[in-house]
Specification:
Mean pLDDT: 93
Order of helices and strands: HHHHHEEHEHEHEEEHEHEHEE
Number of helices: 11
Shape: globular
Largest sheet: 7 strands, mixed
CATH architecture of the largest domain: 3-Layer(aba) Sandwich
Number of domains: 2
Strand content: 15-25%
Structural class: alpha/beta
Helix content: 25-40%
Amino acid sequence: MKIREILREATGNLAKNGIDSATIDAKVLLAFVLDVDTTGLIMKYEDELEKEKLRRFEEAINARKTNCPIAYITGHREFYSLDFIVNKNVLIPRPETEILVEKSLEFLKGKNHPQILDICTGSGNIPIAICHETKERGQDVTAVAFDISQEALDVAELNKKKYEIENLTFFQHDLFKGLSFDSAQDDSRINQEDKLFDLITANPPYVPMEDKPSIAPDVIDYEPHIALFEDDNGCRAIFKIIAEAEKLLKKEGLLLIEISSNKQSEYIEDWFQKNDLDQSYSTPFFIKDYADISRFLRLTKK
């Protein structure tokens, strides 16, 4: 059977199983199996598909029929023009999170040997993208990042190795045990005399627990819940980061946290005022994403 016919059949199969993006998904998965881009796939439409590759493609289509995300099937996701390794132990990087990287790079520009901390690092996509870009522009940066999940950190280490990032250290840590670097003190890249950071970034779990029933199947059934859902209107980890980061930021250091919605920004502002955090930070500023939703909290240490 020719590739054109196989693709048509697979598209129909996905559509029958309720996959709205059936056409593009089938093309992406077949291009992955053939190790070509979608343009290269078009050039092969009249070719016959080898038996082994047909088997692999059918397995991929069967996985997608169950709403398994494309990124978990292929094991890859593009983020900030880099190809990241992903699996079920890490969240799939989202396009909107690239805004956090952009704002971080803007802030770091021109700084002399800045130190960076990334919290709830997952696949390591945020600090790796920052380290990769600062390296390209010749900036000397030191970064550390942690996650509660060792399985996630194993993936982050693979991505770090892939891009030969030498100025980034990962370690396992539970945010709710406080922000401390005792577990990383033996790493010579961390400035022992000055553990204060110029920049702290975080993409913590922030989806409210009560929103679980409304979450799409490809997210709720596959992505790690520990990295998705949180108590207190989704703000529990956010509040903890704000409270702890104040002790670790340099004067005029920047804290950037990804959040979920305009409603969540209201919760954060209210909590901020109730806890008199205007003594430590600038007024909370919220950065919009591509859908005009308040997606990132920006705080500057006074």
